[in-house]
Task: structure prediction
Amino acid sequence: MLTEWASSQRTDGNFSRRDFMRLGIGGLGALTLPDILRLRAEGPSQSRPRAVIMVVLAGGPSHLDMYDPKPQAPSDYRGEFQPIQSNVPGFDICEHMPLQAQIADKLALVRTVQFVEPMQHELEEVYTGFPRSAKRPTMGSIISRFGTSDGNLPPYVSLEYSNGVTSYESPQYAGASHGPLHIAGGEGVHNLGLLNGMSRIRLGDRRGLLQSFDTVRRDLDAYRDVDAYTARAFDIITSPRARDAFDLTQESEQVRARYGLRDDKYTYVGKQPDSVWDSQKFLLARRMVEAGVPIVTLRMGQWDHHGNVIQQVGGISIWHSLRSVLPLLDRSIHTLVTDLHERGLDKEVLVLVWGEFGRTPRISLAGRDHWPDASFALFAGATRTGQVIGETDSRGERPRSRAVTAQNVLGTVYHTLGINFRQKLNDFTGRPMQLLDDGEPISELV
Result:
């Protein structure tokens, strides 16, 4: 099978995006390696946007308690937090996010994102621009298919902890070869699918990672009939440089300390910090886009702060939880954005942070419920920063000006990477489908 695959590849010795994905499916199973080579990082720098990191705050983050404070609203709306001023006039945010306030000139905040799906935690609208029932390709697969990649790196990497492709990250009719490679964050690669039915091995330290690669190379010795192209692909994947690229201990202690720890913890709906915030995933995302991966997605935290759920588990309030998690989010965003700027990547890499909807402006049992009529999207990097776009009403219930949709947000990402949202793909029935129905980018950002 490997020889058959290799014989169909390009004769110039280079592998395309699709070639690499086919190699992952047919030759190495689920060898989900990020940052396979750092060749892009060693080559000439580029000034045009070429990559995106999307951070998803799944569960419905509270817009009022984070990025759209309403201190003058009635007491049963405004919550317990106070806003603080940033270094951009009008860019006031929650008091528990002071680090972002210091770099607001490097951020762009959209306060008026509205969603279609009102009740369920279906992340399809965040990842595709459409509700789950539409069964549209995820953004990463679109970028994989229509974006640019050097062919030596996976074009779409997900830091989702998953043993398979989730429904919201499905390539659908964009093609299976444009699905994500799933990689866990932290020190090294935690889940590697190896050759020929070998079981998945949990790799928790550098020794385990190196031993696993040695096992792969021993198995490769059995393939004496593979041709030069297939052998070259294997050499890339199992090279010492690839090993080092996955090993976050290659980063300086200072950089690692800035990002935080794999086992940072926060309080979700209970009383004690018992949920993991893997801060190192942000560092791994930066390493991958620096090396040339065009799209990296990661989910962070739990944001479904219903008051009745909090009470059922003996918790205190939504603000008790947010006091715990917002400083971690604040540090992660600040460190990632600052690091990209310090490395000269701010014009090349777009960062997007958002969730599937906001939360009810009116407080219920010391919590907030689902609210699709108002939410936020935070941008950084390859866009026009230092601004707030849109305004909600005095209680944060609905947009007063400049309402945008999830499709406008993703359309902004596509536009930034040079992808025309009006392009069409044939669905499974052969019907041509536009990438987005209303993908006009947010003009203030582009």
